[in-house]
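User: Quick one: structure for sequence A, then sequence B.

Assistant: Sequence A:
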Amino acid sequence: MELSEQKAATRIWSNTSSFVTRHADIMFKMYQHTYSAAGQDLWFKSPADMFKYPCSVVASSHTSNANPIQAFLMFQRRKFANKISLFVHDGTREGKTTAFTMLAKLLKTPGWILEASGALSWVLRKQGTSIISSGVQIRTLLEIDPHKEKIVMNHKFDHKDKRSFQYAHEYGDNGQSLFVNQETLFGVGGCSYKKKDNTCDRICRQKISLLPRRRSRQSSAPLLRRRLSRSSTRAPRQRSRQSSAGSLRRRSRQSSAESLRRRSG
């Protein structure tokens, strides 16, 4: 899959491909520079640590042989979406523009999501990037394990406030909290993928809604009225049948008694 609308050639790669392994050291140095410049912790200590993520989207440079990669992101495959977990550029103005253009395009595509905090969250909100608003969808798309994670929605979330966040993502183990991140989930929704397609460039067959279907009160009210109406019409009919049967039995007894009197007289 190629994102051909950009100046840089952008392509999805498996992180076991020869292209990625050949440029692993360059990509790791770009990661260190991007995250250090943004004041974020460096979680990965080596290229091998970073490549625990299985897939990458790489924007290759046409002008530099020394640095053939302008930007890249890494993602994990979830059941209903590709979760972007790493977002990196080469530090140049062109590289940053390419990175954000690539990210914006993906987040307008069903099946791509990004959990972001801090400066990146604010930049995306200022750009008007779509936000997944439902707590049900957030938990489903992220595949939250209730034994290890917890999502606590911030009901005072204001997307126009730089300091605001959508929810607290709490990580723990056996009920013990280890750390909490203040996050916002960006994207337009989940996707239905072909069964057993676990490739990095799997194709979204259809955008899907992950919200439970609930019958509205307005739609259920007419149904309830119809049921009540049916039950109310049935009751008089039953009573009518019962009274008719009783009357018939009484008439039968009266005629039998009259016949008996005539015979005895």
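Sequence B:
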Amino acid sequence: MVEFTLTIGKDPESKLKVIIKEENIMFIQLAFLSDLDGFTPHRDDLSEALAGNIDWRHDLECAIAAGCYTVIHRNKVLAIGGNHGDQCWFVTSEDVAELSQKNRMRFRKIIMQFRDLLLDEYPELWNFMWEGNNNHRRFLTSIGAVFHDQYVQMANGRFQLFTIGGSSCAQSQEE
């Protein structure tokens, strides 16, 4: 068993305790450029990048250089993401679709722990999501996101504002 603590954000008290057991080899760590080797974003993330005219690889390289996080499972990168202040984001890989139900719940739990640490620092989290990304809409709703009637038109699609925080977040927490 390996155990370590990851500090997230500026507050040294914002810590995510990670315990790696043989049967539970999914964890979050600081991202490295090498995490992009073999990383293929999920088709929904690729469609979202196309809708926003975003060079996903370049943007992830910049985010990693600035400091973000990687969710790892069995030596595969499941997601790369982080935050810019109260704006939160993650890009998932195709490997997420192949996870068992049990491991999908582990992934969700890691993302929720990350969310909770950010909510300790910021009262509300936000971002815009491409309206065609139904998988992410379901996932974000399951972790407390509320979608608002506010849109931004990008190059090839519309993006909708979501927020996470306050009472909507508390309703989605699972212990």
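Strands lie at 2-7, 15-20, 26-30, 69-73, 76-84, 87-92, 124-130, 145-153, 158-165. Helices lie at 43-51, 56-66, 101-121, 134-142, 166-172.

User: Thanks, that's what I needed.
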